[in-house]
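G., before I forget:
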Amino acid sequence: MAISHDAHTVKQFDLQLANLRNLVLEMGGLVEDQIKRAIKALDEEDMTAAREVIARDRLINGMQVKIDEDCISLIALRQPVSSDLRTVMALFNTVSELERIGDGTKKVARMTIQIYDGVSSPPSARLLRDVTPMAELAAEMLHNGLDALVRLDVEKALHIIRSDDDLDQEFQSALRRLITYMMEDSRTIGHAINVIFIIKALERIGDHCKNIAEHIVYLVEGKNIQQRRNLDMSLATFAQEKQQEQQP
Amino acid sequence: MSTTTIEIKTALDTMLKPNPHVGKQSSVEVTDYNNRQTVGKITVDHPKMICRGVNVYYGEKHALKNVGIDIGANEVIAFIGPSGCGKSTFLRCLNRMNDTIPVCRVVGQIKLDNDDIYDKSIDVVQLRARVGMVFQKPNPFPKSIYENVAYGPRIHGMVNTKPELDDLVRASLERAGLIKEVEKRLEEPGTSLSGGQQQRLCIARAIAVDPEVILMDEPCSALDPIATAKIEELIDELREKYTIVIVTHSMQQAARVSQRTAYFHLGDLIEVGETDQIFTNPKHKLTEDYITGRFG
């Protein structure tokens, strides 16, 4: 059963749900902005910008607390069921994923400060080569995730889940390259470890985006696809059910 | 006569006198076993009652359209839906309470175990002993608490001696969770109890005749939350021994007490499913709209 777009008889309920959704999207926008800022700070070796990213993480944490409270009061006062309940739960879960993505960007900023601390010489460009494409992919996944949340777009959500594989592969090959550099020249080890922390953070951001996508599928379809096995099964059932629905 | 007395008299009449015309009116006419409009699985592994192609007409009005559903043994099944959707009508079909309404005509097949309850050979009084009923408003007889419970077993000749009857009354009151409150006042009138106690007295009265199925028509709508909680707890306990069908306007109550839920809408049985599934992911848009509070 897809989401009903009709209005509730109690209009206040619709208003509260809409407010909740807007708050989550606002938080999502903030997190998206954080990723961009963190990567820009790394690219431009800008320590001030990196510190700003770290400071702004508090805003995100504050929003999580606010949204959690709103979810709880909505559950207590309105007792949502069915798609309303799934909406509240999906938003509630999405918020905690967003908060962790925020933590990931903070980590990138921290590592930026460590790399360009002014004591050791800056790393060679080839060490950081994989960071930007991975960051772009992660940022795109988050952007698409928020977009899919607005449109309740299951196809898009499934696409995000698949693109997480790409990011994982990028991470693996970047890791292999970094190991090679470290073996070639042990002086790169210090920087390389920091870079590994960065790409690991980006890889985790991808995982959280994938989780958001799974929450969206749950919201719309009422099905939990958190395991790969289930995903293939549910993709097959989706197709079947859609066909059956179309037949009179 | 006060309204309560009239209601009690009607209740007594229905217990004793079946409508002689009903047998003729309710000829078995099974039209469609696969109820095309119902979403979800209508059958269960261990059915207590099997209903197929049930149609009810009030004169010209087609009140219940081709309803097919199984009621499983030892399950609590909740019927929900907006007013006038046919849920109470269907509930009343299950022990032929509709027989008392002259313009009402029931078509279709309803089986209790293997007996067609609309068969001519069925004794309605016996049927209502097997399928008991608890009403919206507590309606104890204007007699003592003891007599309220003892009445059924006595007219059905279930006991022979006074001590046996005493035991049965006590056991029924105990099962209804009322014994502690009324132990010392069994001779006081049933109407002297509070609303919630009266309703539990009615449940004790219903289970005194050892029914197999208990029908409850909004049993908590006149009770406060504490009395409601006690009845809900009782329903859960009674499930071990009986099959319970409950009609309720409180969706939260349906969610709390039942294992399966059936949603009725304008005389159609729209959807049947596990209560958990109905309240998290209903399949039909009408169910979804009703339970989420979108009453178009």
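Chain A touches chain B through 18 residues (CB under 8 Å). Helices of chain A lie at 11-43, 47-78, 82-115, 131-151, 154-184, 189-221, 228-246.

More on Monday.
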